[in-house]
Each structure stands twice: as structure tokens, then as C-alpha cells.
Design goal:
0% strand; mainly alpha
Length: 154
């Protein structure tokens, strides 16, 4: 049975102390030497780059959600890629020792996963999800005004 030694964890504790000290020092320095100009714009609440004016129930462009879902897709991709990258070399070593194709199967699996992600990205791209040009914005405004006009009539 392995014995517990607290000093084995000292580097981790030291890392947390340094990180906490760095964060606190940055807050202190900002409070001491930072500019103190209070303007109406600086005192406004921040809402993801959008002016917090009007109702909270405003309509958002569907492109916002498409970009958010695409971001989540690539975030999840990283969650699968990092463990694969860490384990791949050892899987190849096991494959050499046992003859069972663990590394090859894992590689084929991750390639299928990456192909699926790339196909989804290409589909988004072809559908114009990442087209934020002025023409696309004008088209979205036109569709929005049509929807609002239908809502006023109906």
C-alpha cells in the first residue's frame, strides 16, 4: 500500500497560491492605477455586445443560434480529441505487443468522427450560416419586417 505524503502535493498547492496571488494582484493594481472616467456608456450593463435597450423578448437572428450550436459542436470535438491524442500512442504500443488492432480501430473511429464534424461544418457553410455580409443582413432585415407585418395583420 502506498503511503500518503502531503509534500507530494505541495507543487499543486504552490500553483494555486501563485494563481490566487496573480489574480488578486491584478485586481489590486487595476483598482489603484486604473482610469476612473464614468460615462453613460461605461455604466450601461453589458449584454453580449448588444445595446441593452428595449424589451428582453426581442427576436434574434437564427444565425446567432446556428453559430452557437456550431461552437458547441467544436467544443465537444475537443473533448473527444484530447483523450484520443493522449491514449493513441499507448494504444499503438499495445497493438504491437498483443497484435490486436486497438490503435487502428481507434484511429478509424476518430477519423469517422472528424469526417462527421467536417461534413456538418461544410453543410453550415453551404447554408450560409457564416455569411455575415451586409447583403445577408439586409435580407434578414427584410424577412424580419415581413414577419412583423404579418403579425400586425393577423
Amino acid at each position: 500500500m502506498a503511503t500518503f505524503n502531503l509534500m507530494d502535493y505541495a507543487p499543486i498547492g504552490l500553483m494555486f497560491i501563485v494563481a490566487l496571488g496573480f489574480g488578486l494582484s491584478q485586481l489590486l493594481v487595476t483598482q489603484l492605477i486604473g482610469p476612473r472616467k464614468r460615462t453613460a456608456t461605461k455604466l450601461m450593463p453589458y449584454e453580449c455586445g448588444k445595446d441593452p435597450v428595449g424589451s428582453a423578448r426581442d427576436r434574434f437572428s437564427i444565425k446567432f443560434y446556428v453559430v452557437a450550436v456550431t461552437f458547441l459542436l467544436f467544443d465537444l470535438e475537443i473533448l473527444f480529441m484530447i483523450p484520443f491524442a493522449v491514449a493513441f500512442k499507448s494504444l499503438l504500443g499495445i497493438e504491437k505487443m498483443t497484435g490486436v488492432m486497438y490503435g487502428t480501430i481507434a484511429f478509424i473511429g476518430i477519423m469517422i468522427f472528424l469526417a462527421t464534424v467536417v461534413i456538418g461544418l461544410v453543410y453550415d457553410w453551404k447554408k450560409g450560416a457564416f455569411d455575415w455580409s451586409s447583403q445577408a443582413r439586409a435580407s434578414a432585415r427584410l424577412r424580419r419586417s415581413r414577419c412583423e407585418n404579418r403579425g400586425q395583420r393577423g
